[in-house]
Amino acid sequence: MTDKSEIRKIPTSLRGIETILRFLKKVKGELQSIRNIHTSTGISMRVVKNILLQLEKFGQVERVVEKNKVIPKWKITEFGLKVLEKANGKQEDFQYVSREEELIKDIAIPDNIEEIKRKIETIRTIIQSKIKSFQFNISKSLGIILNRNNPLFEDLLGFILKRIKYIKDRIKNLPIDLLSKEKLKKLGEKETKISLKEAEIIFQESFFIYSIAENELDYILEINANLSQLLENGAFTRGFSIAQDLRDEIRFLTTLTNKLETIKRDHHIFSEEELKKISKNKIDVELVERFVQFKPEKNVRRKAIEELILDIYGKIKQGDIKLKDHNEDLKENLPLYALYQLILDESGGLVFEIEELEDVINSLADKGIIPGIKVIQEDEDHFLKLVQFKAYDINEEEKSLIIAANRLKKFSLPIIVEETGLDIDKIRNLLSHLTQIGILKHSSSYLHGDQWYIVS
């Protein structure tokens, strides 16, 4: 008989494997989005995505990116059908390595502080080296994309490069002496000694997070190797989808870096019980599940999203539009999808759906705090949801250009003139203005000249 504790410790990201495979079999090859799978199975979108990525590695599902679509869809492969038939409901036949298990792979907490110090220094050196390798490879990928005239892909890789450099700098600047923050006191504040036990906990917890970060970097390098191979083979559409996965993992690495910066005697990432498990090397998937699945209750998420939006609104009002670790400037008008991606990048690991963001924005608009969302629609299949932080009335000529831009995804001046039928000087003025207020983005290169596009 299986021990109940063993069942309880099966990672969340493994419990739904058979459910997802059976659902994909049931729909008989019809392509399914992560959202469709989530809705039909009741498994959270984050877990669905993790399972699909693991199954993809083993060739049991396949991602398909449809023409002019950003979000991939999924289907079960012939091999996946065979595995499902063979398993016939037996859990032991679905023993894949989960994301959580990958994150805690080979982690063992040393017995004493001096050994932990030495190992942390080693891990920091390894992390810096791996990030340097990653930067080099992403730069090569960006070079390939620059020749392909794909500004959306350029934008995505440009962000990844900027963010990973920011992470590398932050890790480099973390103190070697983990107790140095404890020695900084406010004027007049008495210095209190740190006990050996308190010091051990700080070092053990920090070592654990550093080790998770190193394993996460291995996963990032694995995804990046896949991306490089796809680009070399000319599979650019699928490569873009893989690069979006890479962006998600960079977000997680950012979260780990944030946590390393906050560990102190009076501020721990883990509970007292979890810290005891870490100190005794009783490391299991439960310790990292809430990192991977950081999705608090709906009301807590809603409040956090609202605070993030209000923070962006405040920055825009003050003219503080530059983000030090991002290639996206804050503008008075932003496509909803672009804002969603930016907030996920800046949210510190909070996971939520774009519908939740839209709902919070509508609520703030109802209260008169921000103007809200303007929908520019051509037909049922072609529309743009535009978040306005400052009220702006879009006229008919601007609407005509935005509709054409949303349909084309990217375009040059001659193409948009032909699409809209507007005078070229009028188009130049419209392009300049719509770029300035944040609705369009502009890209310029020696090879391809001036291009405009919408992130939607």
Brief summary of the model shown:
The chain is mostly helical and 456 residues long. Helix content is 60%, strand content 8%.
Provide a descriptive summary of the structure in words.
By secondary structure, the chain is mainly alpha-helical. It folds into four domains: 4-96, Winged helix-like DNA-binding domain superfamily/Winged helix DNA-binding domain (Arc Repressor Mutant, subunit A); 103-183 and 194-292, no CATH class; 296-393, Orthogonal Bundle (Arc Repressor Mutant, subunit A), CATH 1.10.10; 395-456, Orthogonal Bundle (Arc Repressor Mutant, subunit A), CATH 1.10.10.10. The chain is built from 20 helices and eight strands. The strands form three sheets. A three-stranded antiparallel beta sheet has the order 3-5-4. Helix 8 (113-146) runs antiparallel to helix 9 (151-173) and helix 15 (298-318) crosses helix 17. The longest helix has 37 residues, at 196-232.
List strands and helices in order, with pairings.
Blueprint: H1 4-8, H2 12-15, H3 17-26, H4 34-41, H5 45-57, E1 61-64, E2 73-76, H6 78-87, H7 99-103, H8 113-146, H9 151-173, H10 180-183, H11 196-232, H12 236-262, H13 272-279, H14 286-292, H15 298-318, E3 333-335, H16 336-346, H17 354-366, E4 372-379, E5 382-388, H18 396-408, E6 410-411, H19 413-420, H20 424-436, E7 441-445, E8 449-453
Antiparallel strand pairs: 1-2, 3-5, 4-5, 6-8, 7-8
